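Ligand-bound model needed. G3I.
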Amino acid sequence: MRAHRYPPIGAMRFGVVLTLVALLMALVTAPAPAARGAASTPGQGADLRPPGLAKQDTLRWVAPNDFRIGSAVAGGGHHEQQPYPPPFFNDEEYRRLLAAEFNSVTPENQMKWEFIHPQQNQYNFADADAIVAFAREHGQHVRGHTLLWHSQNPPWLEQGNFTPDELREILRDHILTVVGRYKGQVQQWDVANEIFDGSGNFRTQENIWLRELGPDIIADAFRWAHEADPDALLFFNDFGVEGINAKSTAYYELTQELLADGVPVHGFSAQAHLSIQFGFPGDLEANLQRFDDLGVATALTEVDVRMVLPPDGVPTDAQLARQADDYRRALQACLNVDGCRSFTIWGFTDKYSWVPVFFANEGAATVMWDDFERKPAYCALQRALAEANPGGAERYERHPAYAECAG
Ligand code: G3I
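Prediction:
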């Protein structure tokens, strides 16, 4: 066996010195790691555009560096009762635009309990795996949705008559299994979804976890998710918390308590399901800012702006203008808060929106028509994203690629 020849001591010392110098240089020049949720000044930070992405007038292209503009990925849920095949796997134009327009994706239903854990001893990862693979291929972040919720739980869980200890172990196993499977591939998780009612009280009756295990289970869910993936940002997520009100204040106070106890809560997100029937939540930015001041990241995670459709089903120009302004104001509020670096719309085309299924006579809530043509709301987002870059406004006006919207 050939004796391993060690270099002479002198050469070793010189080699060690060289290595140390190289390491020191790397440390000195490496950019400081961004603090959790820290903002990067637009135009600085990582350029998230995948190499070779042709300069396009897409949302992800004009977005400031480090800013995630995302969409839900259509599948499961209401889609299962519609007369079309699962969009993500069958609609090529949908897939093309999902890749070209967005640098973040959220499985709309494919990671919810009823979908991913249909039987106690059976997981169904196929659709979530495909979405995560798609995101990896297209340089997109993934928002995991959701681990602890009162809705879309499978019958075996809701009707299982489990003891509290059994339920606790079921939740722990689910979180460790699902978050663990996507470790390093899902950057943000909605750990606890919609846990408070409009008065800021826990939804104890509807939520099996709160009802059977008490509110302390929330801290455990965050701890288990952090154990499974220490790098994922762990969020609260809810609707009706865009403004400063009893519900958002309940999250604010709970976040303070959990942070004080060392629980790994990293973010608070507002779903921002808006409607032009109601006023825009003008204190959205202030609300996000107060969570930012706690040191947690914020995000808008399910943005859409619905409307009551006229009898002919075609929105008026005034309705579309108000919708565009609401989208713009919501995005601008996020862009104005350092730690809000993620803005996701709950589906980008009216073709697959949940709104008409849920709300009779309402719809047109997204930024593209059924045929993927852009709506004024799309252009409002594009301009706000472009203007968030240094010199963005001028560049936006000048670039022919934006002609469709710039007009
Ligand atoms: O499970 C029932 C089934 O028993 C019944 O036969 C069938 C027909 O009525 O309905 C099934 O329920 C469907 C449910 O998904 C579960 O699959 C509903 O019809 C369907 O409308 C529902 O849609 C999803 C909804 O969450 C469920 O709450 C939507 O696709 C999805 O976009 C929506 O997303 C939620 C977020 O996760 C959380 N924030 C609110 C947002 C909008 O509700």
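Residues 1-44 have pLDDT under 50 and may be disordered.
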